[in-house]
Amino acid sequence: IPVVFVMGADPVKFGLVASLGRPGGNLTGVSFLFNVLLSKRLQVLHEVVPTARTIGVLVNPNNPNAVSDRKDVEAAARALRLQTHVVTARTKRDFDTAFAILVEQRVGALLVAPDLLFVSARDRLTELATRHRLPTIYDRRELVSAGGLISYGTDITDAHRHAGSQTALDVEVTF
Predict the structure, then answer these.
(1) Spatial distance between the Cα atoms of 129 and 127, rounded to a whole number of angstroms
(2) For 20-50, how does the pLDDT look when each residue is reduced to its tens digit (9 = 90+)?
(3) Please, what is the angle between helix 122-131 and helix 95-104, to 10°?
């Protein structure tokens, strides 16, 4: 049975497919590549705020990608000769504490790791970034629509449309 998936994570990393170019087996689909694009987001943020030498990174430790996201961002930061300061938020109630730590650490900009918690609380998140004058990059345009500075990521509507194009229905309609 052919299976078409739509997911935010890397399907190769999670063992669903052999590669993005040749998935093999009966699985195919679309990945938003939210996590794969973390290093590119850091690079874009660095270009937007070149004076920022320390970048804050907000992650949800409950996210299964949190550990690898942190490692990926730290490796990308080393390549750009930047420092990172990782803060965590498990719930919306943790946002104030996370931003207080970022301000205390005098980070020059913020990268928000992909997580549905951050999307669902986008108004609060973007309000805190604005209040603390912290240039922030997000993975989705919804956060920019809510007042965030910049996003770099997949067009989710287009990705779903593409996944739909990978399916075909053979339906006969009679009246």
Answers:
(1) 6
(2) 778 878 877 777 666 778 899 999 999 999 9
(3) 20
